[in-house]
Amino acid sequence: GAVVSQHPSRVICKSGTSVKIECRSLDFQATTMFWYRQFPKKSLMLMATSNEGSKATYEQGVEKDKFLINHASLTLSTLTVTSAHPEDSSFYICSASPRGSNEKLFFGSGTQLSVL
Amino acid sequence: LAKTTQPISMDSYEGQEVNITCSHNNIATNDYITWYQQFPSQGPRFIIQGYKTKVTNEVASLFIPADRKSSTLSLPRVSLSDTAVYYCLVGDRDSNYQLIWGAGTKLIIKP
What we know:
B: 4-stranded antiparallel beta sheet
């Protein structure tokens, strides 16, 4: 199957700092990537859809100025958590769907963010 | 609200066949049924996808009755490493990313 690489896998930061998470499609081009958030023992929640060359589409309740998404190339999308606070601590996961895959989603390994 | 309903948890033993059933009473004509597996602190992994009848791949089978209001993921001869959360999703192939993730089924395999 297709490979989606996500880095870093774990990050600890101080409150007020910004954290960038990268999501790369290694063996396919992804015009669209998706960012999710997952709390412990809870299900995935779609945060936003990242579109190559255009603005991201955010789900209701997700602050676009808080979670900056950049999709500058067909293989890379980044999520920046700006001015992070402890309540932003969570597991963040990206995914992408290769063309011709019947829209099956392939996921990155996730990033565990801990804000102190 | 999620479009699917699954058991919250299931237990089984190594070497057994495990069947997890998912209800999706409001499935639409264009919806496909997809199952994912997630281990702790990892992203979900695609297992299998189907539209109707039966689909089989190297890791699982998916049984879908004619009315498509439910589906059953079958894992043959499970091992301890199959302990994970299994999610059933239904959605249009053109809007897969909009799928709403339910709570999934926590499968625990015992020795």
